[in-house]
Design brief:
279 residues; alpha/beta; TIM Barrel; eight-stranded parallel beta sheet; two-stranded antiparallel sheet; 10 strands; AKR; oxidoreductase; Glyoxal reductase; NADP_OxRdtase_dom
Length: 279
Amino acid sequence: MKHLQDTTTLQNGIDMPWLGLGVFKVEEGPELINAVKAAIVQGYRSIDTASIYGNEQGVGEGLLAGIKEAGIKREDLFITSKVWNADLGYETTLKAFNESLTKLGLDYLDLYLIHWPVENKYKEAWRALESLYIEGKVKAIGVSNFQIHHIDELMKTATILPMVNQVERHPRLTNKELLQFCEGKGIQLEAWSPLMQGEILENEVLLSIAEKYKKSTAQVILRWNLQNKVVIIPKSTKEHRIISNSNLYDFELTREEMDQIDQLNQNKRVGPDPDNFDF
């Protein structure tokens, strides 16, 4: 991990960038389009969205603008979307996938995820993802917000192991057991809300480490994730922040500093609990 465009290789041989841009809660419009375009121009190659975000069309417009300005090809990018809970099921997931493709203006996705492990629904949705993968409509398939027991249950009927599990992860929720489980299975862990929506940026331990390296606390947290071999998708619509979030490759945290950050864990979530949600 020495460069913004460095990648991890998923279990099926597909390369996925370690760092991407997340667009959760970014509404359709010029701000979204410009953020996606700016990220691509600044060297980002991964963009993460979802059908429930309601912004796939704007992401698609930003992709087109970014590809043109950066002088790259669609194949150089890694685009992720997710199927929402209301669409989980075999036929409904296939329909949702095609709708996402249309809105994004793409003819394939690099990664498609089941957004939440809705009981009695995610197995059929996974069967649909397997079909899409076998047909070549998506390069990799995975899950989001799945705990260990969800993955174990899924694998009772699945024929393809999830390649990615995207979960909430930050210094207050280190998810160590899940990280170790996924590493053991060859599932790449990916962190959403890696900066805890800003809640932890003034923490004294992080401020002290950041001062040592002349970095921001956000950069320290993102670097901590990378050194744990966790893919990250920090959200920002400001170009200077998008650039700052990618300046992670000129310093390295020591083992002691990594442990200090691990010890900030409180199993505290800023998002819903995957074992107790009602949407």
